[in-house]
Automatic annotation (TrEMBL):
Coiled coil (residue ranges): none
Organism: Pukyongia salina
InterPro entries per UniProt: PDZ (IPR001478), PDZ_6 (IPR041489), PDZ_sf (IPR036034), Peptidase_aspartic_dom_sf (IPR021109), Retropepsin-like_bacterial (IPR034122)
Organism phylogeny: Bacteria, Pseudomonadati, Bacteroidota, Flavobacteriia, Flavobacteriales
Xref: Pfam families: Asp_protease_2, PDZ_6
Source superkingdom: Bacteria
Protein name: PDZ domain-containing protein
The PDZ domain, residue ranges: 352-438
Length: 451
């Protein structure tokens, strides 16, 4: 055994897409205790992404549940005192983005627990590049990603409405008759699931093979712009799409006419078209046309049955929601901590005074003396500004520290709440106070539809 100090960071942005080309061959399996046939696990839904608790060699962590990865990845553990990994050796990984390979550590024979499920021979890749930081862009701790290693051993139901993942023993799982459900045949390549969808362009309906990627918070990625992107009138904008293992991902954002999933049809789906370098890195199947992400999947209850190569969808309460995108043109991240000083006024329960003669009463609010509190809070910094966006036209720049939004101190928001605010409603006014080079400035812009 070997203890590895916390030496990795990582992140995932509005879009997360990841391709690991080094695949493990360890014969490890998750199993339940003998008397258990299923287990429900609560999850946190952040930017459409499912974050579940995972325990590695006794250390409790938070992991992204991602059908788009073939191996378990670990990162963002610098806030931990230490984490134990077994039988470690250095390796190289390659992922999406502008860079090349990155350094990692391969560790075998680890004990990993997900709910009541346990694997005592689990293989883990720990990413060593501190620049890859998913937690700072998500605003919640994300220590790693787990995908195929869990899906291969269970039937997995993800209920986005109740925020519960249910794991079923495959030999005990009985598929129920389901009115309104639709089944999809899955195809697998490099331990990742693919399915056929119908994409509606301006002039035709195109049968397309797409990767099912629950680790992408976008709705849809398409690799071919033909018949989708036009310049007159312009129906897209250039954007920062996300951060992969190998660096930044850029491309175009637009909306397509419709997306067909068997009997289900979704209109006006926000769609990203990554640049050619990104497509070249991930198009391992020539006939693959794109990626289906969680902005679409969260509109359903999703049952993945890898053993029978089947996915079942049933629409939920989110199905009819419109597809949004970041209308502000701003991407923020946590960038360390800042000292905060606040005055708290502690209110005591109201005091009632009654006059017997007149049988009248009066209620008084009583406060203690104000108390000055000091604490550390997240610092929010602008890391991307889309050219020509409302935020850019208001003069907000990359590197600005955001102090408040609409009169509320920035640290009182969760990062995903700010993302939701920027994607909320066209015509909404956003007031921001920023600081640049030690000078505070007030900015104002209005969210504007581009697509």
């Amino acid at each position: 055994m070997e203890k590895l100090a916390n030496s990795t960071r990582s992140f995932l942005l509005s879009v997360f897409a990841l391709l690991v080309f080094i695949l493990g061959n360890a014969q490890s399996h998750f199993t339940f205790p003998e008397a258990i046939s299923r287990d429900k696990i609560p999850f946190e839904l952040v930017n459409n992404l499912v974050i579940i608790p995972v325990e590695i060699n006794g250390t409790r962590l938070s992991f992204l549940l991602d059908t788009g990865v073939s191996s378990t990845l670990l990162f963002s553990v610098e806030e931990l005192d230490s984490i134990q990994l077994n039988n470690a050796s250095p390796v190289k990984l390659r992922g999406l983005g502008e860079g090349g390979t990155i350094d990692a550590i391969l560790s075998n024979n680890n004990t990993v627990r997900v709910g009541k499920a346990v694997d005592k021979q689990h293989r883990i890749y720990m990413v060593l590049d501190k620049k890859i930081n998913f937690s700072t862009r998500m605003g919640v701790p994300i220590h790693g990603i787990i995908g195929f290693d869990l899906f291969k051993d269970f039937v997995v139901k993800t209920d986005y409405s109740s925020k519960r993942v249910t794991l079923y023993k495959p030999d005990k799982y009985r598929k129920r008759r389901c009115k309104g459900c639709s089944d999809f045949k899955l195809r697998f390549h490099n331990k990742k699931p693919y399915m056929a969808v119908t994409v509606e362009s301006r002039t035709q309906q195109i049968e397309s093979l797409v990767l099912i990627d629950t680790g992408s918070s976008d709705g849809l990625w398409l690799f071919d712009e033909y018949d989708f992107i036009i310049n007159n009138p312009r129906n897209y904008f250039n954007d920062f799409l996300g951060l992969g293992l190998s660096g930044n991902i850029f491309g175009k954002r637009s909306k397509i006419k419709g997306l067909g999933l068997n009997s289900f049809r979704l209109e006006g789906v926000t769609t990203s078209f990554p640049d050619t370098n990104t497509v070249r890195n991930i198009r391992s199947i020539p006939e693959r046309k794109g990626t289906l992400g969680s902005e679409v999947l969260r509109r359903f209850t999703v049952i993945m049955d890898y053993r029978n190569q089947t996915m079942t969808l049933k629409k939920n309460k989110y199905f009819d929601e419109p597809f949004y995108y970041n209308m502000a043109g701003l991407t923020l991240e946590h960038d360390g901590l800042i000292p905060v000083r606040e005055v708290d006024y502690f209110k005591i329960d109201p005091v009632t005074m009654t006059t017997k003669k007149r049988e009248a009463s009066a209620i008084f609010d009583v406060y203690k003396s104000p108390t000055l509190q000091f604490f550390l809070a997240p610092k929010f910094v602008v890391v991307e500004v889309r050219e020509g966006s409302p935020a850019a036209l208001a003069g907000i720049q990359k590197g600005d520290e955001v102090l408040s939004i609409n009169g509320k101190a920035c640290y009182k928001y969760k990062l995903y709440e700010i993302i939701n605010l920027f994607s909320s409603k066209a015509g909404r006014t956003i007031y921001m106070e920023i600081t640049r080079n030690g000078v505070n400035q007030k900015k104002k812009f209005i969210l504007r539809e581009v697509l």
